[in-house]
């Protein structure tokens, strides 16, 4: 039993050190382009086997922002997806890449409406999620302004071939405009060129996970 506790303590220490080093190295990784940002809170980074991991920012980004809430997160996500779709369309991002994201903060339907498919985590992905769990809970608490735990039942992996995303750029752009209108405190009824049904559907599907 004591040996198991010692092993667990070593693992926890290693994980904490790794997370801290990753946190401190974020500015450098952004500067050299390892983290490629498409909005203030949306970036990609290389993954295995021709994949690009999509991320809703890093812990560095969350601590940098003075004001952040679920609505601004949605806006930055939509802006990031739109700018990424344009980068793919113009050849700045290889269309053969596979976009991949570990989703815990949004409903999977949010990404499915933009061409992604969702699935449950495999064993390796689940282990990686667990070792990152404490940090994710901290980031979610920051974004909501109160202590919140990430629910394991909401976690899923979404994937999409990069060449498919530009097909949804118009719908993503519409969502960006909608969220900007709401962010600027305009009434939904004043949003131009978007039907009330579309507004209601977008807001329902873009809900942040509890």
Describe this structure in words.
This protein is α+β, with helices and mostly antiparallel strands. It has one domain. Helices cover 51% and strands 14% of the residues. A six-stranded mixed β-sheet has the order 1-2-3-4-6-5. A hairpin with a 2-residue loop joins strand 1 and strand 2. Helix 3 packs antiparallel against helix 7. The C terminus is likely disordered.
Portion of residues within helices? 40-55%
Low-pLDDT windows of residues: 186-210
What's the helix-strand series? HEEEHHEHEHHEHH
User: Strand count, sense and closure of the main sheet?
Assistant: 6 strands, mixed
Query: How many individual domains?
Result: 1
Q: Approximately how much beta-strand content do the residues carry?
A: 5-15%
Mean pLDDT: 77
Task: From the alpha carbons, calculate the radius of gyration and give it in angstroms.
Answer: 18 Å
Name the structural class: alpha+beta
Please give the count of helices.
8
Keywords:
210 residues, alpha+beta, six-stranded mixed sheet, 6 strands, disordered C terminus
Helices and strands, with pairings:
Blueprint: H1 2-31, E1 36-39, E2 42-46, E3 51-55, H2 59-64, H3 70-89, E4 98-103, H4 108-112, E5 117-119, H5 123-131, H6 133-144, E6 156-161, H7 169-183, H8 196-205
Parallel strand pairs: 3-4
Antiparallel strand pairs: 1-2, 2-3, 4-6, 5-6
Helix pairs in contact: 3-7
